[in-house]
Amino acid sequence: MGLEERLKQRLLGGAVLVALVVIFVPMLIDEPIERRTVSDHTIPVKPAQKKATPVKRVQPLNVAKPQPEKITKSESTGTKPAKLKEVKPPEAKLPEAKPKPVAKNTSTRPSPTAWMIQVASLTNEKNAKKLVKELRKADLPAQMERVRLKGKQHYRIQVGPEVDHRLAEKMVAKIKKAFKLNPKLMRYPE
Fold this sequence. Notes:
CATH architecture of one domain: 2-Layer Sandwich
Number of strands: 4
Strand content: 15-25%
Mean pLDDT: 76
Order of helices and strands: HHEHEEHE
Number of helices: 4
Distance between the termini: 75 Å
Helix content: 25-40%
Low-confidence stretches: none
CATH superfamily of one domain: Sporulation related repeat
Shape: flat
Strand order of the largest sheet: 2-3-1-4
């Protein structure tokens, strides 16, 4: 085997190794999808609920039917039959109808689905704020919402919303394990 032949093999082997490094090293550096804790998806905005305004119904006007004119004796004495005069009914003015408001039907448009995790509902605001703080320390996007239930003030602690269902399920498992709570996974917007 000649010197040129060995040089060609070494150069080819070196090129193959460089190609493998370029292909596989980024895969080793990037974090796998299963280990991701933050989603790169956008969260849909909760649609505002609009109340439909009642529409006024317009009653039809009573319009008199046209009556044919009667033929008098003087008109009917000729040899030719008398012609009836056409009578136009009086023009009735209809009230101006306002355009009917059209309610937008949002159910025909598919909305993106996201997931919200309800962690707890507490009556003590101090404890609720403490739980939100602990959830945020655990890299969970937690928030608190004030709700009045049966006349009593409650503080609902939620995590999310999250577009990726698998990631939301992993958050639920993390909350169960780290905080010993029983969170509920719900669709967002409700």
